[in-house]
Amino acid sequence: VQLVESGGGLVQAGGSLRLSCTDSGGTFSTNIMGWWRQAPGLERESVAAISWSGDMSLYTDSVKGRFTISRDNAKNTVYLQMNSLKPEDTAVYYCAANWEGDRPDFLSRKLYEYDYWGLWGQGTLVTVSS
């Protein structure tokens, strides 16, 4: 079982990118999926998360209104559409999965905790130039 991210790259401020993460395991459709990022010299932080059915999602305040997380369970893929990118969005973006969580977790702080996530991808670099 592994998560493989793609879609990172160099973009100018104000531009857009769409990240993809494909899960090669067999439980994707029942997993809570998330995106995290880590900028140079900073701790890894939660960006967004989505429930297995796609009907619940959450975002960190700094990306609300600009980023959208979505998923296609038929393709075992979760996406992060990033619009109006800013230089401070520059980071390595990681896909993460939790196969034991459930909808009530979206009402707590659990999804913001690193240890909540049991599986991580290798990361994809997003660089936003000013």
Q: Could you explain how this protein is built, in words?
A:
The chain is mainly beta. Helix content is 0%, strand content 45%. It contains no helices and 11 strands. It has strands at residues 3-6, 9-12, 17-23, 32-38, 45-50, 57-59, 67-72, 77-82, 91-98, 119-120, 124-129. Strands 2, 4, 5, 6, 9, 10 and 11 form a 7-stranded mixed β-sheet that branches. It has a 4-stranded antiparallel β-sheet with strand order 1-3-8-7, with no helix packed on it. The chain is globular, with a radius of gyration of 14 Å.
Which descriptors would you attach to this protein?
130 residues, mainly beta, 7-stranded mixed beta sheet, 4-stranded antiparallel beta sheet, 0% helix
Question: How would you summarize this macromolecular structure in one to three sentences?
Answer:
With 130 residues, the protein is mainly beta. It is 0% helix and 45% strand. Strands 2, 4, 5, 6, 9, 10 and 11 form a 7-stranded mixed sheet that branches.
How many β-strand runs? 11
Number of alpha- plus pi-helical segments: 0
Which radius of gyration do the C-alpha atoms yield?
Answer: 14 Å
Percent of residues in β-strands: over 45%
